[in-house]
Amino acid sequence: MSTVEIKRALLSVSDKTGLVELGQALAARGVDLVSTGGTARTLREAGLPVRDISEVTGFPEMMDGRVKTLHPKVHGGLLAVRDNAEHAAALADHDIATIDLVVVNLYPFEATVARGAERDEVIENIDIGGPSMVRSAAKNHGFVTILTDPADYATLLAELESNNGATTQGFRRAMAAKAFAATAAYDSAISQWFARVDQQQHFPEVLAGAHTRVTALRYGENPHQSAALYVARRPAETGLPQAEQVQGKELSYNNYNDANAALELIGEFAGAKPTVVIVKHANPCGVASADTLLDAWQAALACDQVSAFGGIVATNVPLDGPTASAICEIFTEVVVAPGADDAARTAFARKKNLRLLLVDSLPDARRAGLVTVPIAGGLLVQDRDNGALDPADLKVVTARAPSEQELKDALFAWTVAKHVKSNAIVYAREGVTAGIGAGQMNRRDSSRIAAAKAKEAAETHGWAQAHTVGSAVASDAFFPFADGLLAAVEAGATCVIQPGGSIRDDEVIKAADEAGLAMVFTGMRHFRH
Fold first, then answer.
1. How many domains does the structure of the chain reveal?
2. CB within 10 Å: which end of the chain, N or C, has fewer?
């Protein structure tokens, strides 16, 4: 059937946003309004003619409202195929009137859980009749219009206005699709609460979840790939999707991916002295902490000025004018910060294509959660890498212990290395990365690449020597052979921080002692593939 005139509507909503206005518009068109409980009361208080569902079913609402719409006179009116003679006869035989429009939104289960309600209250907020009506109406969308979102009320009224009080097949199909998505998301929230909270299953037997599309992106990682941005229905944290985009072009898939890498790393420095992170292709290429944000920017940029071109910048404190002006001196794709003063905004405004994103807060680097990676035929799921070091747990394994400054540099390098693709090597000195080697197939090459970048930076800036001289070096996993450590020695490092645990630890420790290095084991690794 192409168009269906709306003659009778059933309204039963938890969220009463826009309800009265919708009821008024329907009543003005002569639509018969049928409703339940609080919804009927709200409509009646607004002076609208409304019939209680009990008048339709012949049964009162009972059992604290648990049973009110689960009745053949409701679901028969929803599910009857209007041009089916057998269905029409059943309607007539049992005195069932058809229902043309259903407006339902469900009990606030997720909100009830989020505010920490007790188990009994959570259970009572599992809607039964609502999803049943939604599914019945959506299944029979050839004849019934289903609305589950107050945001669609205005669209419905426009549809009725354009079609002389009727809805089109295309509109009903679209609303049915949205309705099934709503009940699927609702059931997934319930199932995961039962699994994780009620049954305390860290990895449930069935991993269900629902996300809402925020926007379609121009393309994916490459132009021939499509992409979109989604967020959890009730996100437990805030990040880039919730950021304010002050200016600049639409963000691409790669922009989001790289900016998220920068945001996750800068979150490690929440509450610390001014810090700047520069990321390129999801790897940090310069990180620095200093007394001023401008000094931090200049030091971070000096680490690898070549890679910083076209990169992502994140800061742990609000942006100021001088820092913003300095950032604008090179091509930068995205800047993310917890605020920006007027001078900074003015400076960035001169670079109209630069995306400036302001977040309310930095992500908690210690937050729990799961991360997923799709693989052919399945999905890998693991805990977030929120591991943190207590300096008291470090084990000195060399004859020489690190000095206070060496230990500070080692911990700084270790924090950065956690966010560098494996195999990862990070040199740091006085709160600044001196060289970063990422994503190599062996640790020795990562050590050499990081040292080569440091040497290139020294030549570019006219320094007497590379900043790896006198630095601490962090390795995200153990050195399987002494060669990677010896490459760090050649670069001038004086202190090493690494997980330990190799069958050749004794060989590596011996090489460190012979070179006069201080080395500490963390007992924790940070692979990032």
1. 3
2. C
The model's pLDDT over 167-217, given as tens digits with 9 standing for 90+, comes to: 999 999 999 999 999 999 999 999 999 998 999 998 888 888 888 899 999
* Bridging pattern class, strands 472-475 and 495-498: parallel
Alpha carbons 309 and 118: distance in angstroms, whole number: 53
**How many angstroms separate the Cα of 159 from the Cα of each of 89, 100, 101, 153, 191?**
31, 14, 13, 10, 36
Distance CA 438, CA 417 (A): 9
Which three-class secondary structure string do you get for 230-259? EEECCCCCCCHHHCEEEECCCCCHHHHHHH
Strand partners, 427: 435, 473
Q: Which of 7, 87, 273, 281 is catalytic?
A: 281
281 is a catalytic site residue: yes
3-class SS of residue 518:
strand
CB 482 within 8 A of CB 498: no
Nearest partner of 285 among 251, 309, 269, 268, judged by Cα: 309
What's the CA gap between 347 and 341, in Å, rounded? 10
Mean pLDDT to the nearest integer, 225-232:
91
CATH number of the domain where residue 113 is located:
3.40.50.1380
pLDDT bucket at 88, cuts 50 / 70 / 90 = confident
Residue 99 counted as domain residue:
yes
320 touches 312 (CB < 8 A) = no
Q: CB under 8 Å to 241, separation ≥6 — which residues?
A: 214, 229, 231, 235
Give CA 76 to chain center in angstroms. 42
Give 195's DSSP letter: I
Same domain, 353 and 410: no
* 125 in Cβ contact with 107 (< 8 Å): yes
pLDDT digits (tens, 9 = 90+) for 386-445: 988 888 889 999 999 999 999 999 999 999 999 999 999 999 999 999 999 998 998 889
Stated pTM of the model = 0.87
**How far apart, in Å, are the Cα atoms of 326 and each of 27, 319, 518?**
62, 11, 37
Clarify whether residues 353 and 422 are in a common domain.
no
**Residues 228, 256 contacting (CB under 8 angstroms):** no
Strand partners, 399: none
290 in any annotated domain = yes
201-221 burial string, b = 16+ CB within 10 Å, else e?
A: eeeeeeeeebeeeeeebeeee
Does some domain include residue 213?
no
Tell me what percent of the residues of the chain surpass a pLDDT of 70: 99
273 is catalytic: no
Residue type, 367: R
CATH for 346: 3.40.140.20
Q: Any idea what DSSP says for residue 340? A: B
Q: Is the peptide bond before 316 cis (omega within 30 degrees of 0)?
A: no
- Do 283 and 160 lie in one domain? The reply is no
Catalytic residue chosen out of the listed positions 139, 249, 273, 351: 139
Same domain, 423 and 327: no
Which residues span the domain enclosing 30?
Answer: 3-198
* Number of neighbours of residue 286 by Cβ within 10 angstroms: 30
Euclidean distance between CA atoms 395 and 401, whole angstroms: 10
229: in domain? no
